[in-house]
Design a protein that fits this description.
Layout (H helix, E strand, L loop, with lengths): L4 E12 L2 E7 L9 E2 L2 E3 L6 H13 L3 E13 L6 E12 L13 E7 L11 H14 L2
Parallel strand pairs: 1-6
Antiparallel strand pairs: 1-2, 1-4, 2-3, 2-7, 5-6
């Protein structure tokens, strides 16, 4: 009997003046050309919230503190591996609102601050689109 592996991916939702930071993934990389939010694999010994804060700093140069969890999506690997992915997103609060974004050039080609409704129709990574939908529906209640 094989044990299914669990892999946690943590993301940070950074808000500034009612808009949210999205990063365009570099072409030629996984999900290249799509717009994502800062995030990555939870490393051994850290919590998903700590990973979201770390990834935000590494990918954007923005220092943040962890806020509440806003989404958690679970999906099986579609590539045939026996892995279940947990994609967890936290609100992140900027330490300094005036700091400029400094992209990790290896991973991202551009960034924008957008509204939850994504008025420009940017091609968002699936979990970002779903998280925005969750947030938009709770704000309309």
């Amino acid at each position: 009997m094989t044990t299914e592996r669990q892999r946690f991916i943590a993301h940070g939702l950074v808000e500034r003046d009612g808009t949210y930071l999205v990063l365009r993934r570099r072409d030629g990389r996984y999900l290249g050309g799509r717009w994502d939010i800062p995030g990555g694999t939870v490393e051994e010994g850290e919590t998903p919230g700590e990973a979201a804060v770390r990834e935000c700093l590494e990918e954007t140069g923005l220092r943040a503190t962890m806020g509440p969890q806003v989404s958690h999506f679970r999906n099986r690997d579609t590539g045939g591996r026996d892995v279940t992915f947990h994609t967890v997103t936290f609100r992140l609060h900027l330490v300094d609102e005036d700091t400029d974004v400094r992209l990790s050039a290896e991973e991202h080609a551009d960034y924008r601050w957008i509204q939850l409704t994504n008025p420009d129709g940017l091609p968002l990574v699936w979990h970002v689109d779903r998280t925005f939908g969750v947030l938009d529906s709770t704000q309309q209640c």
